[in-house]
Amino acid sequence: MGSSAAIPLRPLGLTSAQFVTRSREAGRRGAPRDEYKALFRQGIVPPGCELTDHPVTATLVEGETSKFVLRHEDGLETESVLIPMPRASGTTTTLCVSSQIGCAMGCRFCETAQMGLLRNLRADQIVHQWWAGTHRVERASGNTIKNIVFMGMGEPTDNIDEVIQAIRVLVDHDGAMVPASNISISTVGNPDGIAKIGELVRENGFHRLNLALSLNAPNDEIRSSIMPVNKAWPMARLKDALLAFPRFSQAAFCVEYVLIPGVNDADAHCDEVCAFLRDIRCSLNVIPYNPRRNSPWPAPAESDVERFIARAVANGQFTKRRGTKGRDVMAACGQLGNEKIRNRKLISDVGISTPVSLGMPPHAARDAEKQA
């Protein structure tokens, strides 16, 4: 009991059953399940529990979309985005959460990738983004968060155990009660990570969890040039992973395609993408490129976006366009990240000494951290 009590009790990283068990092990009195419900539904932190992160800014964009920052105990920051989504039945809010601080994937078009991988987030730090968005940011607007997308900073499958634990917490009926069907995980295409997500999907209560693949190229040559991880996980292997993924509903995969001028936006590229996706039940989600800082490419012309989408539809591919929101304040897709950290070897100004793993494969990044 003594050793359990010495471990910080972080309820945002625990399911209700785990919180009850840990509370009893720590000798806490009271009604832990009621405390758990009050934390998630009313924002009341249970006595003796630890919530170490807090939002330090909230930037409004066009009066609606907001990007807020959580500063962690080591001084590093995570960015999250609240996105209003107009619907026929009214506006709903989608929360874009981060799973890492920085990213090791090295995608050339992404701002976060320019930081390198600083560290993984714990499950409670991932869930804290929902808690802060719900009880500190969204409360003022009167909106509620309906959907959660793992499309913020980091690659979810590179921190898969903590991401899965966070999803278990978010779905918990005594807590946030976010339906699995309202949660999407976006990956650059780690087949092993996709398989682990598939294991979760096979469990009762998680059958309708959504998977999104960030494809962004029509062939291996182009994909490897903008996404170095493609050399380890080429497109044929990604396709096999998607075809093997368990399906419990008629919902389609989301295949994300960042349209970059002069790189992947030609008619021939569109034809190749559609041919690659022909055997996969999916929606092609075309995302007009949002330039990162010091980007070698501009945003695409609207006429080119429309041309690409029209050609995909003519190919018989169900296609949607991702709306652009938050581009002006670096809150749009692919723009999250701290510009003061990027391209440094050591993050010494925040009291830690962590190697920046810019463009490293995930295993190399972890090895560098162990040697530091």
Architecture overview:
- This protein is α/β, with parallel strands linked by helices.
- It has two domains: 1-48, no CATH class; 52-371, Aldolase class I (TIM Barrel, Alpha-Beta Barrel), CATH 3.20.20.
- It has eleven helices and twelve strands.
- The strands form two sheets. The chain has a ten-stranded mixed sheet, covered by helices on one side. Strands 5-6 form a two-stranded antiparallel ribbon.
- Mean pLDDT is 83; it is low at 1-5, 325-332 and 334-372.
Brief description of this entry?
With 372 residues, the protein is α/β, with parallel strands linked by helices. The protein has eleven helices and twelve strands. Strand 8, helix 6 and strand 9 form a beta-alpha-beta unit.
The ordered string of helix (H) and strand (E) elements is HHHEEEEEEHEHEHEHHEHEHEH
Number of helices: 11
What's the CATH architecture name of the largest domain?
Answer: Alpha-Beta Barrel
SSE class: alpha/beta
Percent of sequence in beta strands: 15-25%
Average pLDDT reading: 83
Residue share in helix: 25-40%
- Return the CATH class of the largest domain: Alpha Beta
Biggest pleated-sheet summary: 10 strands, mixed
**What name does CATH use for the topology of the largest domain?**
TIM Barrel
Distance between the termini: 34 Å
